[in-house]
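Lab notebook: predicted structure, single chain.

Context: the supervisor wants predicted structures on file for every construct in the current expression panel, including those that have not yet been purified. This is the next one on the list. No modifications to the sequence; it matches the entry in the shared construct table.
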Amino acid sequence: MRIGLCLAGGGAKGAYEAGVIKALYDKGIKNFSSISGTSIGAVNGYFIYTQNVEKLEDMWINIEQNSKKGVSIKNNIVDNSEVIENLNELYDNSNESTNFYVNYVKVKNKNIEEVVEELSKLDKVDRLNAIKYSSLLPFNPKGTLNLKDQFIKDVNEGMYEDYNLDGGLVRNTLIEPLIDDNVDKVIVISTRHDFELSDKIKSKFNENKIIVVRPKTELTSKDTLKFSNEFCKRMFNEGYEIGSSINIEN
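Prediction complete. Output recorded below exactly as produced.
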């Protein structure tokens, strides 16, 4: 069976996603024909793509010990250089027959355009750059609006001109490339407890062949930067429990 895995964005909520991934691995579900990731989903996806799931678990369970910098805002973005450095240190056991898609936003002339990259066709430097862009979250400390509205306002004022930024700003769940790869089944790990498939996706792919994995906890935007041991370990364990009950044969 050709399985596609879609990993949504959500910052620290990615701990839940990692717990589901580890549970799938422990159940023997570890070979994916296609992977897609947005923002933190792109980061988690790289651990899967390079076959470093044990290190993925360690990163989230010991998030504070593994981070020397903590959350840092530089030039109105959340600095992700440390996590990209950690990805660069991973031993690459990647299977080149697996497609790995990530998306990000390109800002040009005060307009935003979504870019989707297929990383198996790129060298390591370009792969990590694409993941860096996909997980580079804009954050204006002086902003008064919600994240997306503030971002649009700041773009219109020229703040992020020529930046490549977080893919979740335009599409947080990158399912379409997996469908286009003609997989037999898609596992979507969402960080939203109320996530539902769009009518567009349902019209393109048999809904019965899509397994949506949602957290029980009602997570909010306030949890995006909650990179604490307590929160990440709790969400990892919740994800592991939910992931352990997944049956892909149905």
